[in-house]
Design goal:
The chain is built from two helices and 15 strands. The chain has about 200 residues and is mostly beta strands. It comes from Cystobacter ferrugineus.
Length: about 200
């Protein structure tokens, strides 16, 4: 049976924009990108964030440019129940709301970008402006993944294109039932639809 997967994208809906999480004790995280690299991270301790743009509170969103996934208790429970081996959940206090939120860290990544079936894949060339990134992905549109390379994962990031948080159809369906998200889900398996970017 074919397994369908979806990348989590920022939704074009009115919503709050949360700042990069920081330690409750003060200062900044040594590596604010650690939650988007597709690997286990050490417990960062108590964290907090605040809206830098106030808007409608959402059950699931991504924070700032680093795209850290932040979920309320219901959405976090969906990840906890459906993908316990694929995620870490770290509590984060959101200023202005008593509701508990969690950073969702995908702990697995796979070399699974299907370059042949993705709409367009660009890599950094050897004669480009950033020689240290030669051969790495520069951009991917119409991403497709090869599901034969992701083992039994339900949540992961594609190696080399970790900006993409990929979830299974079961997780997508559960989150959509919860509703009020600040994200949408873009399919990354199967043939391209005519309206896909």
């Amino acid at each position: 049976m074919e397994r369908n997967f979806y990348v989590v994208e920022i939704g074009d809906v009115p919503q709050w924009c949360l700042d990069t999480p920081v330690p409750v004790a003060g200062g900044t995280l040594d590596d604010p990108w650690m939650f988007v690299e597709g690997k286990l991270v050490p417990d960062p301790g108590p964290l907090k964030t605040k809206p830098f743009h106030h808007g409608e509170m959402r059950t699931f969103t991504v924070a700032n440019a680093d795209r850290t996934p932040i979920a309320n208790e219901q959405v976090a429970r969906a990840f906890r129940e459906l993908a316990p081996d694929d995620v870490q959940l770290f509590p984060v206090d959101v200023e202005g709301t008593p509701e508990r939120y969690y950073i969702v860290n995908a702990t697995r990544s796979f070399k699974c970008v299907d370059e042949k079936n993705s709409r367009e894949v660009q890599v950094y060339p050897p004669d480009g402006a950033v020689p240290e990134r030669v051969g790495e992905y520069r951009s991917i549109s119409g991403l497709r993944i090869d599901t034969s390379k992701i083992e039994n994962a339900r949540v992961f990031r594609p190696m080399g294109w970790e900006v993409a948080l990929v979830v299974s159809e079961e997780i997508k369906a559960r989150i959509e039932r919860i509703g009020n998200t600040g994200v949408y889900f873009n399919r990354v398996t199967g043939p391209h639809a005519s309206n896909e970017g």
